Each structure stands twice: as C-alpha cells, then as structure tokens.
Amino acid sequence: MSFLRAGAIYAVANVASAAVPFMLLPFLTRLLTPAQYGQVVSFSLLVTLCMTVAGLNAHAAIGVMWFRRSPEQVPSITATALAIAVVSTIAVAILLMAGVYSFPSMMPSITPGWAAAAALTAGSNVILQCRLVLLQGKNLPMSNAVLQISASILNVTLSMLAVIVLNLGSAGRNGGIVLAAMIMACAATILFMRSRELEWSPTREQVKTFISFGSPLILHSFAGVLISTADRWTIGLKLGAYELGVYGAGAQLGMVMAILADAFVKAYGPWLYARLKADTDTDKLRAIGAIYVAAPALVCVASGIGVVLYLISGILLGAKYQAAATVLPWFMLGGALNGVYMCTSVLFFFSGRTGVLASISMSSALCGTVGTWMLVANIGINGAAMGYAFTQGLLALFTTLVAINIFDLPWGRPRHAIAVWMRTIRRPPQPAVAP
Hints:
Elements: H1 2-31, H2 34-50, H3 58-68, H4 74-102, H5 112-137, H6 141-165, H7 170-194, H8 204-238, H9 241-278, H10 281-317, H11 328-351, H12 354-379, H13 381-406, H14 414-426
Helix pairs in contact: 1-6, 1-9, 2-5, 2-7, 2-8, 2-9, 3-4, 3-5, 4-5, 5-6, 5-7, 6-7, 8-12, 8-13, 9-10, 9-11, 10-11, 10-14, 11-13, 12-13
C-alpha cells in the first residue's frame, strides 16, 4: 500500500509539473510561429544533449549510494556529487561555447551564448535531480512532489512574463527555462544545507566512485538522448525549423505517456531496490511479478490517453499546428515501451552494471537513429514519430532479453510471480513482532 500511495503521489506530481508547461503550449503555439517554436525545440534538444556530460550523472549515483552506504556518509557523498556537477558543467559550457563559435554552421539557430546557457541549464537540472532523488530514496514522495511542481511553476511563470509581457518571442521562452533551472539549483543546495545533508569533506574514494559510476553512463545517457530526440534532430536537419516546430508541438502532447511511466518507475525503483536487497525467493517473485503486470498495463493506459489527446488536440494546438496530431499514436506507443524499459533498467542500476546498460542503449540508439533517418526521408514527420516508437521498442526488447540472461531472477515463472505480487497488493506483509 505504501508503494501504491507513493506511486499515486509521484503520478500526481509528474502530471501536475508537466501540466504547467502543457498549459503553456496553447499560448506558445498561438504566440510563436512554427519556425520560432522550432528554435525553442532546438534549445531544449541542446539542453538534453548537455545533460549527458554536465553533472556526470551524479543524481543517478546518489540514488544507488543511498541504499548502499550508511546514513552518516550521505552528507559527504552529496557534497561530492554537487562539486562534480558544478565542475563538469562549467567545463561543458566552455567547450560547447567554443565549439559553436568555431563551427557556427553546426547549430545555425544557436549562438555561443545560448550554447553556454544550455550547458548551465543542464547542470542546474542535475543538481535539482540530486535533491529529488535523495527525497525519493528517503521515501518522502510529498516533499519530492512539492519541489518538482515548484520548479515547473517557476519555469512557466518566467517564460510567460518574457513571452507575453516582454514580447521576447522564442528567446523569452528559452530564457525562462535557463533562469528557472538556475534558481531551482540554488534552492536545492540551500535545502541540502538546511537539512544538514551537506558535509564538505569529499574523499578520493568518493570521487573515484562517482566517476566510475557516472563515466559509463555518459555513453548510456548519450544513447538515451539519441533514442528520445533522434526524431527531432533528424527533422531539424532534413526538413527545417518550421517542420520541427510543428512536430515539436505534437511531441509535447505525446510526452504525457512518458511522464506517467516515469511517475510509476519513481515509486517502483525504491520498492524494487528493497526487494533486491532482501534477496529472498518471495521478494524476487514480487519484483518480477510487478514487471510482468506493468508492461501490458502501460500499453492499455497509453491507448486510452492517446484517444483523448487526439480528440482535444485541435483545442490545445491551434490551427497552425494541426498536422502535429497525426504523430500522437506513435508517441503513446513509444511512451509505453519506454516505461517497460525503465522497469527493467532498474536492475542494472542496482547491480552497478551500467556498462552493460550503456552497450544496450547505444546499440538501440544507433539502430533506431538509422531507422528514423530512413523513415523521415520517405514519410516526413509521421516517419519521425514511427522512428521514435521503433527505437523505444528496440530498447525495451534488448534490455529485457539481456536482463533475463544475466540476472538470477524467476523470469520463467510469470504466473507464480504475478500471483505473489497480487497477494502482496491485497494484503501487505506485516512486520514481525518481537517475542
């Protein structure tokens, strides 16, 4: 029941935090031309790309180390994570700014200043994620939800002021993203300090642990960027900013399913970590049962949400972006498949086998990118959406097949696993009473 309550809170938080920029979408699609909205999409893609290196995936390491280290070590670990995030972010900002300045044709809609801003935004997001992940590990979903929703409200408020009041167009929206991210990073650091969860005494062993954990994830994160954004990069390169703006608006609607899947995994991740740590036959069956139930459930939820979004897409997008509605079914399917992948990928994070996960991700990304490029060349923006779903399907399939082969879990007993999981839901196990 605790798992279900946490899942409900995370779902509400994800939906609410996503609903705030989602509510901004009808204004942007009426205030910005498709070409201007394409510039917003390009900047967001660059932020996503920067997150593969900026921060060195410190938030992912904290999530695992919370379960593996003693509580007394957490403040020092957190401080080390923030220091690594800041140093790596500054390095990425300098390198990216120099690269765009030297090769301006590489990103024609991005100036060196905006390139540096994208890196700073990515690093700031990693610092905020460190706080959110720690709250998640401590089983404080309400605190996590408040912080997450606050970040979205600030993001949209600043963007609304810049776009509507100051009439800054796409620069206003991008500027709101940057400023909100930096403010929330400062807020997260202050919250760490107030809760006495920062101790500025990093050790060589901690730095080495973060680097050894995060370095393989650079490849994995880069693969993740290709998987989630190859469709938009391809459209930007082959079809231009106008088509990218139209497609980006449809992609924003389609992200609803991915957001719901992420909410589920935020509750499922700590729950699965606890089952794996217990290492009993019953706990293993519960874990596998949850995975077997989650996959078809995600597909069913995606189908229902997709129908609703398609029916109201005209109201949400406006006349200039009507073509974007045709990509929704593929984004719903892709979001459900991404949820399946995230359920299984938790096993790799807990075991520390991030190098294996990186290999799987990169293989899926390369195959999916080639397929997306071919589909866009032949079908256009609908081909890009098909490529997104195809890539997510490859990732879910490869991750599941590898997990079945390398993790000693009862994969071959699906009925028994589901039955054990269902009994857990109906009647949670009671703690033992001391004699």
